[in-house]
Amino acid sequence: MKEEESNEAEFAGEGITPRMKKRSWLLGGCLVPLVSVLLSIASCPTIVEMKYESTLEDLRSPVEKEVPKEFPVIVYLETKGGNGARIIAMEDIDKFMGDAESTTTYSFLIPRDKRDFVEHALSDQENSIGKFRGMVVKNITPNKQSIKVKMFSGMHIRSWYDATEKAVYPKYYVKDDLDIGGGFIIITYGLLLPMVICVVSLNLIIYIVKGVRRKRK
């Protein structure tokens, strides 16, 4: 006891005592696993979404001669009343182009500075294909883009295509409910992974607390 008091007195001039050092070590040691738990819980929806997309990419089929009727395509619109965007099924593309040629300025390219606007506009729309769930746009050249469209209508729908201003070139398509695979993803990455991280982190905290108590004795 006297030795601990002399040590505290020795460190008093520096403003840090051995007890303060133990407490800071304890706080830091417990904070790391707690933060890891919070981060794992917060990142679970993102991990589940990534696994969903990875699984759907594995299930996709190349589009060859016959394009699926529900193959979704994004059209960017410019009219006198303002800009907009629509989801059009591939089977309706020719009709749309014929009707819009004289009345609407349109493009299958999505301007870089309008992508947030397009996503917002499409998320509020209802259409026969399903509910818009997002898109991925990559520029191949200044006049050509690679586009992925994500839809949901009770089943997960994804289309991959290349686009120029006035043409669409379908590449891949998938429509799947992910019944078994989706359940596995949710259970594994939405429930089991956070539980494992929580158990490991709590055991680490207990180990740290017990270690500090032993040092005090």
Describe the structure.
The protein is an alpha+beta fold. It has two domains: 21-57 and 180-216; 61-175, no CATH class. It has helices at 2-12, 18-59, 93-100, 115-123, 179-216, and strands at residues 61-62, 72-79, 82-89, 105-107, 131-141, 144-152, 156-163, 168-176. It has a five-stranded antiparallel β-sheet with strand order 1-8-7-6-5. Strands 3-2-4 form a three-stranded antiparallel β-sheet, with helices on both faces. The longest helix is centred in the first third of the chain and has 42 residues, at 18-59. The chain is elongated, with a radius of gyration of 28 Å. The N and C termini lie close together (11 Å).
State the gist of this model.
With 217 residues, the protein is α+β, with helices and mostly antiparallel strands. It contains five helices and eight strands, in the order H-H-E-E-E-H-E-H-E-E-E-E-H. It folds into two domains: 74 residues; 115 residues, no CATH class.
Key words describing this protein structure:
single chain, 217 residues, alpha+beta, five-stranded antiparallel β-sheet, three-stranded antiparallel β-sheet, elongated, disordered N terminus
Overall mean pLDDT score? 75
How many E strands?
8
Gross morphology is elongated
The main pleated sheet reads as: 5 strands, antiparallel
Order of helices and strands: HHEEEHEHEEEEH
* N- and C-termini, Cα separation: 11 Å
Rg over alpha carbons: 28 Å
Number of helices: 5
Q: Name the poorly predicted regions.
A: 1-13, 180-184
Overall SS class: alpha+beta
Kindly report the spatial arrangement of strands forming the biggest sheet.
1-8-7-6-5
**Which bin fits the share of residues in helices?**
40-55%
Beta strand %: 25-35%
Please indicate the count of domains. Answer: 2
